[in-house]
Every structure is written in structure tokens, then in C-alpha cells.
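subagent[fold] <- orchestrator: predict structure for attached chain, return C-alpha cells only, no commentary.
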Amino acid sequence: MLPSKYAITPEVEANLRIVERGCDELLVKTEFAQKMARSQATGVPLRVKLGLDPTAPDIHLGHTVVLNKMRQLQNLGHTVIFLIGDFTSMIGDPSGRNSTRPPLTREQIEENARTYYAQASLVLDPARTEIRYNSEWCDPLGARGMIQLASRYTVARMMERDDFTKRFKAGVPISVHEFLYPLMQGYDSVALKSDLELGGTDQKFNLLVGRELQKEYGQEPQCILTMPLLEGTDGVEKMSKSKNNYIGIGEAPESIFGKIMSISDTMMWKYFDLLSFRSIEEVAALRAEIEAGRNPRDAKVMLGQEIVARFHSQSAAESALSAFEARFRDGAIPENMPEVTVAGAPVGILKLLREAGLVASGAEAQRNVEQGGVRIDGNRVEDKGLQVVPGTYVIQVGKRKFARVTVA
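subagent[fold] -> orchestrator:
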């Protein structure tokens, strides 16, 4: 633990509140307060690390939760290290999985990394971002260095990881190379002399390994900040392309805005906490206004415009709002509609229409599809055999029947 050498000034306390906003856990808070106080007193910025394996090229809003926190730390004057795990990607992160994840080829990693950073730069300030690849120090380790590194962590400690424990008890194979993943991620912190490492809640074990390895190498241990996983537009599952409940930052402005408007009034506040750059005080004041009777739709409009402006432009945000409002003015979509949940995804469109109460029979459902009278999120359904995957949708039958349907 760091000695309490530096005074915790009001400015440090205010900055701590910014850092803690929306986070799941800050370990160890007293140590991090001292790190921030030292930085303020000496003028030396903290080194803040975020490691990302470029396993896919596209980013959705769920991915930006951690990136937003990095941007806040940049705004507080600290150095952000955007670490691309080109070496660890070839191992495959087993976190939260019940089977081995297949490693990527070098070509896949390089292509994904280029696209990923280009998109991440829409959140981070590129001028204040240090880009590193962990192959810089992992490749030179060699066999001897890898064995020496492995000697600094025990199998018993490794088996404390929940997913490893469950797989071992269930008789599901665990390859030896999977133990190397948290070990190498931890060694990244040693190589970078990290003061703070960020990650999702599912990365906590790996982040703690970094802290322990720094102690082994005689370094001041990093603190850890974990961010919650953002639920998707269905308000239930973690945002994911496979769940079809995601909002991609590269989507059209109208699509991003419409999806933001479709989230529930309750989930909206979590989106504000994790995605908005508005101050804590501003969001608290807005929430008080909503609780006092202001229409929650107003807050969602503000959030939707902020997100669209960030990834497109302010003019695109205005156009998205105008297009959305035009649909209401034209009577295309009512502001209030029944909300229904249909289980058993994927669900055939004809069955979905029946269970959502939008038609009385399968024959009526089929007739409406054939006549072009069925729309999902404004798009006409032409395939009677359409299978609707998990997500939340505005479904329309004819001119006057609407329902917001969550397929689970």
C-alpha cells in the first residue's frame, strides 16, 4: 500500500468522483487517491492502461464504456496507453468461456487492430494516446523468459479463476496455454509500469494478476478499475452482435438514434452513466426533472443526439432527430404502444405476430406479410419464413397496430 504522503485536496476528491462514475469497482481506492494526489503535486501524469485483443474489427456502444472512461482520464491530464494485444490474441482469452477460444492468425489480428483503433479514436484523443503492441516485450522473452515468468505465479492461484474452476469440475479440458493468457496480460503491466488498468468486470482476475506480478518485479502495484457490462437494446442481455441487441458506432445516424430511443426509461439512466460525457451534476438535475414530471422522452432525445454527434456530427444528430419526429407527425409510429415479450428465440415472424397480439390467427399474419403490411423497425417484411433473433423491435401491422416486442 502506498504511504499517505500526499494531501487529498478538493480537486483530487472531485477527480476521484469523475473516475468512479459508473464504475463497478476501484481497487484499491485509497492507493489510487494517493497516486492522483502525487500526480497533482508533482505534475507527473499517471499511466493508464487498457489492453484490447482485436478479435473483431467493429465496435459497438458496449465496447465504448471503457473507452469513455479512458477519455475522462485523458481529460484529467493522464497518459492513456491503448495496448493492442497482438501477442495475446494468438493465445485466445478464456475469460468467461466454457471452452477454449480459437486463436487468430497474424493477418486477422493486424487487420482488426487497424480498424479497431480507427473507431476507438472517435472516443479517445489520438494526440494524447500512446499506442503499444504487447509483442514488443512478449516476443523477446523467448522460452527461457517465459519459464522464468511462469515461476512467479502458482497453479493454485490460477485455479481461483471462476471459469477455470467450473471447467475443471465439469471435466471440460483446460489447455496449458490458457494459463499463459492472464500471465502475459499481467506481464504487460510490468512492461508498461502501469498505474491503473481498466477492464470489464469479466477481466478482474486478469487485472489482479498484473498487480501481483508488478509486486514480484519490485514495482509499485497498479490499481484496478472495472466497468460494468452494458445491456443491449433488449435491456436484458449484454450488448452483443450475436444477440442482435447492439448499437454499432458505425451505423447510420438515424439507426443509432432510433435504437437509443427504443431503450426503456429505466435503462436510459445506465446509458447516461456509462456513455454520456455530461457532468454528474447535469445528469442528476435531468433525472430530478424527469422524476418531477418531465417526459422521459426528452432525456432520451438528448442522449441520442449526444451519441450520434460523437460518432457522426452535430448536423447528423439534428437530422436524425428531425427524421424521427417526422415519423411521429406523419402518424407512422405512436409514442405509446403495448410492450410484449416473446420467448423462444429465434421466433418465426408469423408466430411472433400472433403472440404479440397483433393478429388473430396465422392466416391473418400470413396475409399481412404477403400484402406488405408488416414492418419491423420501419422496414417492410417480405419473407414469411423470417426468423426474428433476440432483440427489441417496434412491429407494425397495417396502419394502426403497433407493439414494442422483446424477443428473448
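orchestrator: received. Logging for downstream: The domain at 10-227 is CATH 3.40.50.620 (Rossmann fold). DSSP finds 17 helices and 13 strands in the chain.
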